[in-house]
Amino acid sequence: MTTDTPEDAPEGVFITFEGGEGAGKSTQILRLAAHLRALTGREVVTTREPGGTPKAEAIREAVLAGVAKPYGAFAEALMFSAARIDHLDHLIRPALASGAVVLCDRFSDSTRAYQGAAGGVDEAALHALERVVVGPTRPQLTIILDLPPETGLARARQRAGDGEGADRFEAETLDFHQRLRVAFGTIAAAEPDRCVVIDADAAPDAVEAAIRSAVAVRLPDLLSGGEKDATENAA
Ligand code: T5A
Q: Which domains does the chain possess?
């Protein structure tokens, strides 16, 4: 597989969305994708973790059903990593190499937060794992949707409907979800150039507006390049 960008294609842009359960990531990814397509004319690929490819989706089904839980949080980190390797090799890197904008619902910060800070796996071990699995394919921008875990869990429950039970991580204690929130805040504070925290405890339109502003500020070339392309196309 080649990771070279074809000469006539713009550089790929990798944006990840992170946060606790029911933070609104899926909702906002679709909105940002539509906005970027309309504004830039670029190919925008939306995807998720765990998942995004058939093999990674198979791992998703198993992990969220709790299959790896008895083996402990490090084993779960390995499962998420196996899914991530396939996702990177077969979807994310090829899309970036073709010049697409890739919007990914969760990525390696979720492993740091869920299996690391909240799950108790040694930070150094996860750091080494991330270095091997992710390599140089790091997001240019990570949007962290922040809200009280009680609100996010209530949203997730409402969406799932009364008939369905919580998945492997939704079923964790409130304390676990509070540790997650702190963990995402710590990640953002440690990498302020990459991460932006958005208040997700607001109406969807307000969250969308805040995300658009963050993208405009953090990735000005993405939007100005799009306007230039649109002008060129119109000429
Ligand atoms: N995981 C994942 C790990 O432990 N380690 C890892 O390395 C990785 C990659 C994935 C699980 O795997 C764990 C984390 C997760 O527990 P999932 O089902 O994909 O499982 O879980 P989430 O990513 O949390 O996805 P959710 O679908 O639960 O949440 P979203 O995508 O953040 O929220 P969304 O957009 O689906 O919205 C949820 C509901 O709220 C409403 C929506 O309409 C929807 O009904 N909503 C709002 N309501 C009010 N105000 C707003 N602003 C709203 N925005 C959305």
A: 14-234 (3.40.50.300)
